[in-house]
Specification:
The protein folds into 2 domains: about 350 residues, Alpha-Beta Barrel (TIM Barrel); about 100 residues, no CATH class. About 30% of the residues lie in helices and about 20% in strands. It is α/β, with parallel strands linked by helices and about 475 residues long. The protein contains 15 helices and 21 strands. α2 packs parallel to α13 and α6 runs parallel beside α8. Strands 4-5-6-7-8-9-10-11 form an 8-stranded parallel beta barrel. Strands 15, 16, 18 and 21 form a 4-stranded antiparallel beta sheet that branches. The two termini are about 40 Å apart. The radius of gyration is 23 Å and the shape is globular.
Length: about 475
Amino acid sequence: MTRLHRRGFVRAEGTQLVDDSGTLLPRGVGLGNWLLAEGYMWLFGDELASPRQIEHRIETLVGADRASEFWHRFRDAFVGETDFALIAALGFDHVRLPINARGVMAADGTLVEAGFDLIERAVAWSEQYGLRILLDLHGAPGGQTGTNIDDSEHGRPELFMRPIHREHTIALWRELALRYRDREAVFGYDLLNEPLPNEWQYRYADHLVDLYRDLTTAVREIDDRHLIMYEGSHWATNWAPLRERFDDNQALQFHRYWCQPDDSSIAEYLAVRDRLETPIYMGEGGENTPAWIYAATRLYERHGIGWNLWPWKKLGTRTSPLSAGVPDGWEQIADMSARPDADVVWRVLEDFLSAVEVSRCETRTPVLDAVFARPTLVLPAWAGRTEEGTTIAAMTSAPIPDGLWHHTSGTPYSHEEYVPVSVSEGSRLMFDLAAAPSGWKVEADDPDAVAVVWDGQSLVLEARSSTVVRWIELTS
């Protein structure tokens, strides 16, 4: 029995997502690395980036039997019921579940029930804890990107090169639709994650459109109620393949990382939303500082765009809600030139399995405060908004430093990266917050030139006279 806080299937009405209770503004988190391992989340380098590479390394180090045991235990430890309970308790309303086709479908197209059992486990936990779950085909048969993130075997997007992979992808979505067509907790079907990056986006653009049409037809023959999501090519940033509608009950998805967190970064997506009268959704973003995450998330919400933070948990991280401790000896696994004793490696892997359990992870509170706009942050002045919707580049009174938007490990800003924002008499700089802070400190050339007031939804800096503001420190 579902315990959804809001009932009904998620569906599109005009440019909005709705359910039986009305308009939705989804706030979620992605379960990356669970069903499709990504090397950077293990603190591995490029030689251990894909699931196949990681699997081969572990099997080489400890043997086939122990490797099989490790992966079975990993699926139980990395994401479990306690993760879903905590996700709901923290305030998220949905999860995005990346699926690797290799986990649910053999090379000949036969289904792997053990893989579907894991998906069912996640859907059932979503129901139990009042969450919705977006089914995301992160690694399609043959690979839709030709990179490590889709588990492609030969480093090419062979989904678009070999008809058999296309057939298997259609068959897989038919199977998912058949199994989940009656489950309200399923948010929708995210058909392909980040298809056709780089040069492939041009070579196979028409193939992507045709595949989306065929997948839509296949799903709709079985399920006419669930939302279908379509991602653009080139890491879900190029929406040229999404120029026309595919379905009446659709949403378009974009991903945003390492960009200026203001209207300039989403203007093209807003234009497509308005032209097609379809909802849009930010399906992956994060991997940055709390200030950047705050500014980006507020941007999406101002425009009525639901979002999903990527990812929920990583090893030794500042940028995810949960950080697992790095086990002693981990470098022996990460270093491809190392040939440690198998028993030593096994002890390290067992420590890893313990470290990734929720009870052992460290909560990165600043990340959570950022996504939910809680008043316990240090926010650069550029993270605020003006009444005119001025871009950050236009707000700042000094050049934006190289790399400001690329704090991929979440390292704090240097003094120079708190780029000053000029305010003139009568102007207002606003910071949207979930609640009023109990106190604040403004770093400005002339702090007395700025009055600070709470207007019920934003902390507003009102300039009494011209000055330069660098940041504001909030306390709850």
